[in-house]
Design brief:
Layout lengths: L16 E2 L5 E8 L2 E12 L2 E5 H7 L4 E4 L4 E5 L6 E5 L4 E4 L5 E2 L4 E4 L2 E5 H8 L2 E5 L4 E5 L5 H14 L14 E2 L6 E16 L5 E15 L2 E9 L5 E11 L13 E8 L11 E8 L11 E7 L5 E6 L2 E6 L6 E8 L6 E7 L5 E7 L12 E10 L21 E12 L2 E12 L2 E14 L2 E10 L4 E11 L2 E11 L11 E15 L2 E14 L4 E13 L2 E13 L9 E12 L2 E12 L4 E14 L2 E10 L4 E11 L4 E9 L4 E13 L6 E4 L7 E9 L19 E3 L2 E2 L9 E7 L5 E5 L9 E3 L4 E3 L6 E19 L10 E5 L5 E6 L5 E8 L1 E7 L1 H7 L4 E8 L5 E8 L8 E3 L8
Parallel strand pairs: 1-10, 2-13, 5-60, 14-52, 46-53, 53-59
Antiparallel strand pairs: 2-3, 3-4, 4-11, 5-6, 6-7, 7-8, 8-9, 10-11, 12-13, 15-16, 15-44, 16-17, 17-18, 18-19, 19-20, 20-27, 21-24, 22-23, 22-25, 25-26, 27-28, 28-29, 29-30, 30-31, 31-32, 32-33, 33-34, 34-35, 35-36, 36-37, 37-38, 38-39, 39-40, 40-41, 41-42, 42-43, 43-44, 44-45, 46-49, 47-48, ...
Length: 891
């Protein structure tokens, strides 16, 4: 407890000393190299300097209450157990666990309040305050760390850290929506191929075929169609689809659907019942665009133009490859997913050197559905049938389900942040009869693991139960599954003869110096009801070594029949490589049966491409088939022109065959700029377009007026990619190749502006492209001006080193600057408009000042330099409370 004994026989209110205003000082507190944020006022006095007590309390961030009416200052110093009371009425200074000290003429009255001798403050506060009038500073020294100094050091360490990059949020930018119309002229991608082949016996034949892919709008919906011919140029297949996609889920009013499709569609797969197939029918859902097909696996399908091939990468590792199958689709089935992030990328390679990339992310871990949110779907389709059959379909004997109808519906609900539940029904033909199913799933995340249990019941039959787990332990991704079947249960995933099946997989990476080698292992045991078993072991790796992507997969299958006899194990090795060597893009693939009935090398394929310039390339390929004792050689040339692309190649085999191929590809569609028809070598029907006009926005309102001219030779950027051509004499250009239904920011490449006093009015406009049609937008470029002024602290002194920001009417930060040593600030190249001036959020917290400064910053033709004059910081939240003697009754 503090000693409250009086130092004087009779306490009294002694007369106060006064300071001379001619001796006024403005000092800055310093500790080592740190300068405290607030200045301290003071005065010269006899034998030294006195310091304003309120300024000292505020600068040191002390929780002390200064009450002018009761003439007391109470609080604690640097820690809660060091309480202090400065009582001018009694003339005492009381501190816990210390003797009471008298106030012996050490407090002076000044126009600002109490001015205390620096030597007295040093004794009372337990620190050394040494005024240095020559440098106008007060040096602070202490034998023990002080809280406010520790806070300064923490902020200093934090300032040395790399600042966290702000998330790029497209919702912060203005957007342009394009309405659906009754009719939009379609864009058409065309591929025409002719092949001449001569067999070893001298017979020859010329075959030609074409493929047309068109997208447009009809009756307020997007419509795509693909027609392909046979080798005699007779139409052989036609697929048509009408659909609407809306990532925001605003389709069909209260249903809030995200996808509606009719025609040639794809259904959703169940976990234990039916797989994903394509056919003619309809589909509707409110689930996000893209998503998991089944637990820990997914299926990717898409359009593959004639003559193209596709590679699949998972987290940057080459996983699979698919060549042109002639059906216009790529299809990667049951792609394994790992716990955590799964970035899948399909890279499409065209015959004329085109490269297209389609990316999607499939996170596995926490629930993908927010608590309380419900996703649903419903579909019905006729399997493997086109909407319009140009020829009578051929149904294989014993497979009537190939043209049968299947339907399904389901919903998935987010129970909490880690749990989702799902229910579904499916009906389809299997083994010659219709089967109907009910299925339920429960998905739960447990920290580093995700578990799913699924139960399916075949109406009138049996049931199946499955448990799946996927997780990460240390550097290992682990997966396990178990399935049992009871009763008369049969589905596309579970044969009727299955008793149980169990499997385990592991994935890790070995670091060998700088080389990281990912490894995957798996085993699967299947037991049938008749007692026979099958064990499958697999191991794979996919690594990248200085431009070489290598994938290797080894699989061994061991079968044990009813008699206990073990068949000859089948062991298969698959190799896939992709590399750049000596300026060549080289791809290699090989497969071999290491054991089994067809033991031996199956094939080896090596292909390469050599760019001659930006628009042409040479291609070569060698294929070896040891089972047929045949080797095929191919050499080709491809060139992309402005309006079309061509490819020609010749092939020869060691068995005497010879062939030649010629392919022509082009796109045709409406010209959104001139209003006519345009041709392009880029695929217009499979991608989105933007028709952009760049104009000089004189008044800075962002809207093009009749007297505002367009700008020529300006480049436009879409996301991070620059457009191929600058704006023409009318200020217009077209950006092709935009990803459909993926929002993208269209802006101006500022470096292409020839006038240094012009700048884009904002970062750009966000559009959501639709395939085959163009979105029209205007991008304003405005004259620029400057904003200048001088920033003062709350005490009226120049404030250097403060971050200031200019904010436009949309809340976007247009410019940032830092005040100079004398408080001067300057924003240059600011587009005309109306802005707000504010202190950066971090600087405002550090200085404990309000962010808002001025709301009347205007730049226009009559005022291209906004001179703010003196701008003073406004105090924010304070730790110190200085009582008002009128409003406070003391105590």
């Amino acid at each position: 407890m503090p000693d409250t004994a009086s130092a004087q026989d009779t306490p009294s209110d002694p007369p106060s000393a006064q300071v001379d205003e001619d001796d006024f000082l403005f000092l800055r507190l310093m500790h080592g190299t740190y300068a405290l944020s607030e200045e301290v006022r003071g005065y010269r006095i006899e034998g030294g300097v006195c310091l304003d007590l309120a300024d000292v309390i505020q600068s040191l961030d002390l929780p002390i209450r200064l009450d002018k009416k009761s003439r007391r200052a109470t609080g604690w110093l640097f820690s809660e157990d060091r309480k202090i009371v400065i009582d001018r009425g009694s003339g005492e200074v009381q501190k816990v666990n210390a003797d009471t000290a008298p106030i012996d003429g050490e407090i002076y009255d000044s126009p600002e309040g109490w001015c205390v001798d620096a030597n007295a403050l040093s004794r009372w506060f337990g620190v050394d305050l040494k005024p240095d009038l020559y440098n106008a500073v007060v040096t602070l020294e202490s034998d023990e760390p002080l809280p406010f100094l520790q806070a300064i050091e923490r902020r200093s360490r934090a300032a040395r850290l790399r600042p966290k990059r702000e998330a790029f949020d497209l919702s912060k930018f203005p957007s342009k929506d394009m309405e659906y119309k009754i009719w939009r002229t379609p864009s058409v991608d065309a591929v025409v191929r002719s092949t001449y082949a001569r067999s070893p016996d001298g017979n020859s034949r010329l075959r030609s075929r074409y493929e047309l892919y068109a997208t447009g709008e009809l009756a307020g919906a997007s419509v795509d169609a693909r027609i392909a011919s046979d080798t005699d140029l007779v139409p052989a297949s036609l697929r048509v689809r009408a659909y609407r996609f809306d990532p925001d889920g605003e389709l069909l009013g209260p249903l809030k659907a995200t996808r509606i499709a009719a025609g040639d569609v794809e259904n959703e797969a169940g976990q234990l019942t039916g797989g994903s197939v394509v056919g003619r029918g309809a589909y509707i859902s409110n689930s996000p665009l893209g998503g998991l097909a089944r637990f820990s696996t997914t299926t990717l399908r898409g359009t593959l133009p004639a003559g193209w091939d596709a590679e699949l990468y998972r987290n940057g590792q080459l996983v699979a490859f698919q060549d042109d199958r002639g059906d216009g689709r790529y299809e990667f089935l049951e792609i394994p997913l790992f716990f955590g992030r799964n970035a899948l990328e399909v890279v499409l390679y065209g015959p004329q050197g085109q490269i297209r990339r389609e990316r999607s992310d499939f996170p596995v871990g926490r629930s993908n559905i927010k608590p309380g949110k419900t996703f649903w779907f419903a579909s019905g389709l006729q399997e493997n049938r086109n909407l319009i059959d140009l020829r009578k379909p051929v149904i294989r004997p014993g497979a009537p389900e190939a043209g049968a109808w299947r339907w399904g519906a389901g919903l998935e609900h987010g129970i909490d942040a880690r749990t989702t539940g799902a229910l579904g029904v499916q009906s389809f033909m299997l083994d010659g009869r219709r089967r109907n199913y009910l299925e339920g799933r429960l998905n739960r995340s447990f920290g580093i693991m995700q578990l799913e249990t699924a139960l399916a019941h075949e109406l009138g039959g049996g049931l199946a139960l499955q448990a799946n787990a996927i997780g990460r332990v240390g550097s290992f991704n682990l997966g396990a599954n178990a399935t049992i079947s009871r009763g008369d249960f049969s589905s596309e995933f579970i044969p009727i003869s299955l008793d149980y099946r169990a499997g385990f997989s592991a994935d890790t990476s070995l670091k060998l110096g700088r080389l990281v080698v990912p490894l995957q292992f798996g085993l699967d045991r299947l037991v049938l009801r008749d007692g026979s078993t099958e064990m499958t072991y697999n191991a794979s790796t996919a690594m990248a070594i200085r431009g070489l992507d290598l994938t290797a997969r080894l699989e061994r299958r061991v079968t044990n029949d009813l008699t206990g006899r073990i068949d000859d194990p089948e062991t298969e090795l698959q190799l896939l490589a992709n590399a750049r060597l000596f300026g060549l893009r080289v791809r290699a693939a090989a497969a071999a049966e290491l054991s089994g009935r067809e033991k031996g090398l199956q094939f080896v394929r090596i292909s390469t491409r050599k760019p001659l310039d930006r628009e042409s390339e040479l291609a070569g390929e060698i294929e070896y088939f040891p089972q047929q004792d045949d080797t095929r050689f191919s050499l080709g040339y491809a060139r992309r022109f402005d309006k079309f692309a061509i490819r020609t190649d010749a092939t020869a085999t060691t068995r005497g065959s010879f062939g030649a191929n010629f392919a022509l590809s082009f796109s045709i569609g409406p010209d959104p700029v001139s209003g006519g028809i345009r041709f392009s070598q880029a695929p217009l029907a499979r991608s989105g377009q933007a028709a952009v006009t760049v104009f000089r926005d004189i008044d800075g309102d962002g809207v093009r007026d009749a007297d505002e001219e367009t700008l020529e030779d300006v480049y436009v950027v879409a996301g991070t990619a620059q457009g191929r051509r600058p704006t023409d004499a009318d200020g217009s250009t077209i950006v092709d190749g935009l990803k459909p239904f993926r929002p993208v920011l269209i802006g101006i490449d500022e470096s292409s502006l020839s006038d240094p006093f012009l700048a884009p009015n904002g970062k750009g406009i966000v559009i959501t492209p639709r395939p085959g049609v163009a979105t029209r937008i205007d991008l304003p470029v405005t004259p620029t001006g400057e904003v200048e002024g001088t920033l003062l602290s709350t005490t009226g002194t120049a404030r250097p080193g403060v971050t200031l920001e200019l904010i436009d009417s949309r809340g976007q930060i247009i410019g940032r600057t830092v005040t100079e040593f004398d408080g001067f600030f300057l924003f240059d190249r600011i587009p005309y408009g109306r802005y707000r001036l504010r202190v950066g959020a971090e600087a405002a917290r550090t200085l404990q000042v309000a962010e808002r400064l001025r709301d009347d910053v205007v730049l226009d033709r009559t005022n291209d330099v906004a001179r703010m004059g003196v701008v003073r910081l406004q105090a924010g939240n304070r730790t110190i409370v200085i009582a008002d003697p009128i409003a406070d009754d003391g105590g």
